[in-house]
Amino acid sequence: MKIGVFIPELIRHLFRTPATVDYPFKKLEVPKSFRGSPYLQPELCIVCRACERDCPAEAIEINTVKEEEKIFSLVIYNDRCIHCAQCVDSCPTKAMQMDEKFEISNFNRHNLKMDWEFVRAAVKPKAENKS
Ligand code: SF4
Ligand code: SF4
Fold first, then answer.
1. Which atom, in ligand 1's list, is nearest to the CA of 76?
2. 90 in ligand 2 pocket by Cβ < 6 Å?
3. What is the number of structural domains in the chain?
């Protein structure tokens, strides 16, 4: 094949804007609905355990630390997480949220574990029926 046939194509591409970004020096903004990693806002958690029950990867573990003082722990094993956001959908108080990080690779899977120890949030009373 003659090399000359590529020259018009080469010239056309010289003046085009690139289709890719210079990652990791430049980064694209992720969309609002991006599913990064789940994290807990402990001040909103009523320890209903819906996230733990519904997680398909068994990546969430909730334990009682001190029953009388209503202290609990919640662990997210991010090395097992499949980033499906089911825990966020199941959470009735919006205590579980997803962040926008995507550079979470690590040589040690145990470093991906996140845990919180917190006092259970009070259950908000339901709005009274107006008749
Ligand atoms: S995002 Fe999915 S896999 Fe990850 S902790 Fe939540 S429910 Fe489990
Ligand atoms: S994070 Fe949400 S779903 Fe999980 S235990 Fe707390 S309140 Fe319930």
1. 5
2. yes
3. 1
Amino acid at 7: I
**pTM attached to this predicted model:** 0.83
Q: Are 46 and 125 in contact (CB under 8 A)?
A: no
Of residues 97, 33, 86, 39, the one with CA closest to residue 58: 86
Q: Provide the residue range defining the domain that includes 80.
A: 35-119
Residue nearest to atom 8 of ligand 2 (CA): 48
Q: Do residues 52 and 60 make contact, with C-beta atoms less than 8 angstroms apart?
A: yes
Instruction: Determine if ligand 1 sits within 6 Å of the CB of residue 112.
Output: no
Q: Give the pLDDT confidence of 89-117 residue by residue, as tens digits.
A: 999 999 999 999 999 999 999 999 999 99
Residue 103 lies in a domain: yes
- DSSP code string of 52-82: HHH-TT--EEEEEEETTTTEEEEEEETTT--
**pLDDT value of residue 115:** 98
